[in-house]
Each structure stands twice: as structure tokens, then as C-alpha cells.
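Students often ask why inverse folding is considered easier than folding. One informal answer: many sequences map to the same fold, so there is more than one right answer. In these notes we will look at a single instance of the problem. The structure comes first.
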């Protein structure tokens, strides 16, 4: 350990903030960084060195070294954190990468609304205060056959709000097979506790029968809750109760309640994904549309805006007018409300669905999910050609291979979507190093999949032809850095 005197001497060698500012001014050149911000970043850098000295290390205390590291901090701070990413994984609703890419029409609507004032809560016809709920409600009703609808921040918020409104201080009955965790700490039992609903579990993990629900109902039961099991499936010796059956049970109960003047027992389904129209060419997944769930007898159905629907993050509840009216008055509807940009994107996305064929072409999530294996083969061949044009020969080889894509986002978990991808085999460098380079070093991070020391690029989740070029350029840059290959 150095003596206290030696430490003091070392610390005195640290440059002053002003000395570093002078040194930095030549490095930064035309970049403009506010003086106070610069001084703060330099202080952080000096503090780090001071601590290193006190810990007995010997950091470089030269003004040039402090200036260079402070410059790194300046650059890191001025770079945006939320950036565009190229999704080459083939996972369509990739929650870590922002779930659904928006349709062009939705993006234009956001731009238009964000840049100026809007009729967010203004009724132009009556020149009076309006409601933000009107913009999407009629569209949602048309598309699902519901009488009324409300959209909030996300589906987790929708579930919380519905349970709080209808099951607070009451019992909500749910099958043990549906007590799921969806990820990001969204657990059905926790959400129920948080909404002050009393959870009544029935059945077993694998089997629940109608009689289990019937036996659990008391005068204080207000909701029979059905939850889509999303990213998990019960297979084998299993049985669950259909919505139709739940409605039959509720109807029998409500006949008795009506005579006693008691509140109705509701059937509510948290559907998760929110499919508005059947997916063409993808059969046997058993995922009902929202309209089908309602037709089965649900009083309320909730679903996400950014999963199979392919819109912005939102949680939508549809059902009868008296029930939705109650939700609109719940304080959570205010606390969890959508902002104008999201409403603009949601309205524009829903409008596309009025023509199912148009939605198929214009909503990226639908287009990607419905891309056939043959279309994926063509797209993979085009991507391979583009990569071969950009990346110098000899450093790697590209091959089109059969691949499986996924819906992601907890939607259609058992569905293998037959697809094709471009597989990269490395002559120089490695799949691991290249994946890290693609994710970090290019102007736009590129996320690909590693499989057996090869790098796979799925064309299914690319949103534009530009992204092909971007993958090619970044790959070429990787090989230039790694192998000294000429990039052109
Ligand atoms: C995804 C999902 C949720 C949560 O929806 P968010 O829109 O992500 O908040 C809730 N329930 C089910 C069944 C889901 O699949």
C-alpha cells in the first residue's frame, strides 16, 4: 500500500476540470456540448480516477487521458438509447424488440397527430368537449361485433381494470390450469390481489370440470375468469371448460340472482393476443378471433394491441355498453389511458382491418405471419444475393436453409411456421463475434440468431428492402475489421 503522503501526491497530479475542458475543446471540435454538462462528465471521470488512486491503483492521470475518457462519456450521452433495430430473428412479435412494427398508415397518423393539436378530446361537430374513447370505439365494435369498447395502456392494465371494477371485494373464479405468469412479473394471482379481487381457484393443474366452477360460486362471486395460457400449453391428459360452458353456468346462476335482485355473474376472458381476423394459411392453431370469443358468450374480452393485432401497445376491452360504461368511469381508466400518438396508431391500424385483404398486406405483423414457406424461400434467396454482392468472397459463405419462424409474444406458442433463412458459415471470424459486432458496432443494431456456430438471418421479420442492404454493409464492415477483408 502507498503511504498517505504518496497518495496525496498522486491525487495532486490529477488535472483540474478547466485543464481538461481546454484539452477537450480541440478533440470535440464542432460538436457543441453545454459547458455545465461537460464539466459534470469530467468531474465523474476525475472522481473515478481519484477512487482508483485511493484503492492503490495507478491510473493514467494525464490531462490527455482524462480528456479522451471524458469524450467517450460525451459521445455515450449524446447517442440515443432507444434506437431502431433490424430484427433478423424470424420471431415476429418479439417483445424485446418492440413487438409489432406499425403499418405505414399508422406511422403517418402518428406523425400527423404528434406535430400539431388534435381532436383528442374535442367534438368538432358540437364545438364542445369530447371524449378520447370515441376514436377507436366504433371501429372496435364493427370489427368484433361488440356493443362497446375501451382501450387503455396495455392488456395487463386492461385485466387489472376489469378485475378492479367487477371483482373488487368479490370473488373471481379461475381454473388452476390458467394461473399463469406471462413474463415481466405479470402473474394472474398477483394481478388479482392487486385489484382487490378474491381469487377462488378451482380444478387441478391439468383438469378442470364445469362442476368445479358450479361448486365454487357463492352469492359474492362476480366473475368467472378465463385466461388464455399464452406461451404455455397443457397437453396430454387435460380438460378445461369452454367459454360456452362457463356462459351456461353463469346463465343458470343469473336466473336465480335476477329474482333476488342481485348483480349478475360475468364471464370475462383475457384473450391475450387479440386476433381480429383468421390468419390465412395458418390452420390448426386453435386461436379464436375476438369476435369468436364474444360469440361464445363472454360478457367481456380483453386483448393486446401489439400482439397478433399488429398495432401499438394497448389493451382493449370489448363487451356490452353498460359494462364498458362502468369501466370508463373507473379511476384506473384515467390513470391507464392512451395518449394521442397511440390512439392515432391504433385507429389507423383498426381502419385497415375494415378490409381484411388490405390488412393482410398493410399490417406488418399479419404480412410476416402469413408469409408462406415458398415466399420465405424467395425472400431468403434475394437476401443471400444481396449479401453475396456486398460481402467480399472468401471470408464466409451463405446458404439458404429451411428454418422455423415463431409468432412470439406468447401468441401461438406451439406453432412452427415453416420458413427459410440465410445461413452464414465463417471462414474468418466466428458467429459469436459477428453477432456481437452486428448488435453493437453498426449504426443500427442487427439481431440475428446463432445456431451451431453459424449465423442465421431470417427474411421474414425484415420490414423493408433497406434492411437487406444494412445487413450486408455491416457484415462487410465486420469482415474488414476482423479479417482485413476489403469492404466495398
Ligand atoms: C400478453 C398477455 C397479457 C399482457 O398483455 P400486455 O399487452 O403485454 O400488457 C395478458 N394476458 C395474456 C393472456 C397475454 O397473453
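Output (designed amino acids):
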Amino acid at each position: 500500500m502507498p503511504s498517505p503522503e504518496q497518495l496525496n501526491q498522486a491525487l495532486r497530479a490529477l488535472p483540474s476540470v478547466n485543464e481538461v475542458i481546454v484539452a477537450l475543446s480541440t478533440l470535440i471540435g464542432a460538436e457543441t456540448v453545454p459547458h455545465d454538462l461537460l464539466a459534470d462528465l469530467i468531474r465523474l471521470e476525475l472522481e473515478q480516477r481519484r477512487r482508483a488512486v485511493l484503492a492503490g491503483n495507478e491510473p493514467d492521470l494525464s490531462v490527455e487521458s482524462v480528456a479522451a475518457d471524458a469524450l467517450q462519456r460525451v459521445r455515450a450521452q449524446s447517442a440515443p438509447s432507444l434506437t431502431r433495430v433490424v430484427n433478423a430473428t424470424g420471431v415476429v412479435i418479439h417483445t424485446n424488440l418492440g413487438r409489432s412494427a406499425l403499418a405505414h398508415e399508422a406511422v403517418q397518423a402518428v406523425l400527423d397527430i404528434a406535430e400539431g393539436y388534435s381532436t383528442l378530446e374535442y367534438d368538432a361537430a358540437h364545438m364542445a368537449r369530447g371524449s378520447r374513447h370515441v376514436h377507436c370505439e366504433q371501429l372496435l365494435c364493427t370489427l368484433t361485433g361488440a356493443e362497446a369498447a375501451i382501450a387503455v395502456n396495455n392488456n395487463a392494465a386492461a385485466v387489472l381494470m376489469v378485475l378492479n371494477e367487477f371483482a373488487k371485494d368479490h370473488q373471481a373464479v379461475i381454473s388452476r390450469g390458467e394461473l399463469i405468469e406471462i413474463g415481466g412479473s405479470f402473474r394472474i394471482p398477483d394481478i388479482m390481489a392487486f385489484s382487490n379481487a378474491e381469487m377462488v381457484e378451482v380444478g387441478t393443474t391439468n383438469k378442470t370440470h364445469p362442476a368445479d366452477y358450479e361448486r365454487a360460486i357463492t352469492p359474492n362471486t362476480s366473475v368467472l375468469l378465463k385466461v388464455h395460457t399464452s406461451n404455455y400449453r397443457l397437453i396430454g391428459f387435460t380438460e378445461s371448460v369452454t367459454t360456452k360452458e362457463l356462459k351456461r353456468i353463469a346463465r343458470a346462476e343469473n336466473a336465480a340472482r335476477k329474482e333476488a335482485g342481485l348483480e349478475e355473474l360475468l364471464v370475462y376472458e383475457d384473450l391475450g393476443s387479440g386476433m381480429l381476423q383468421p390468419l390465412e394459411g395458418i390452420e390448426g392453431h386453435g386461436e379464436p378471433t375476438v369476435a369468436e370469443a364474444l360469440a361464445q358468450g363472454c360478457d367481456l374480452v380483453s386483448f393486446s394491441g401489439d400482439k397478433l393485432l399488429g398495432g401499438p401497445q394497448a389493451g382493449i376491452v370489448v363487451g356490452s355498453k353498460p359494462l364498458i360504461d362502468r369501466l370508463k368511469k373507473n379511476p384506473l381508466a384515467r390513470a391507464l389511458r392512451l395518449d394521442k400518438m397511440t390512439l392515432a396508431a391504433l385507429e389507423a391500424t383498426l381502419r385497415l382491418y375494415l378490409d381484411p385483404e388490405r390488412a393482410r398486406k398493410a399490417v406488418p405483423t399479419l404480412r410476416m405471419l402469413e408469409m408462406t414457406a415458398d415466399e420465405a424461400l424467395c425472400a431468403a434467396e434475394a437476401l443471400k444475393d444481396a449479401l453475396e454482392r456486398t460481402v467480399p468472397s472468401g471470408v464466409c459463405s451463405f446458404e439458404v436453409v429451411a428454418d422455423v419462424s415463431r409468432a412470439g409474444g406468447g401468441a401461438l406458442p406451439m406453432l412452427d411456421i415453416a420458413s427459410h433463412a440465410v445461413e452464414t458459415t465463417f471462414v474468418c471470424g466466428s458467429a459469436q463475434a459477428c453477432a456481437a459486432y452486428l448488435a453493437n458496432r453498426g449504426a443500427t443494431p442487427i439481431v440475428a440468431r446463432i445456431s451451431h456456430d453459424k449465423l442465421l438471418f431470417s427474411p421474414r421479420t425484415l420490414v423493408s428492402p433497406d434492411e437487406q442492404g444494412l445487413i450486408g454493409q455491416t457484415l462487410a464492415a465486420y469482415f474488414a475489421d476482423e479479417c482485413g477483408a476489403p469492404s466495398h
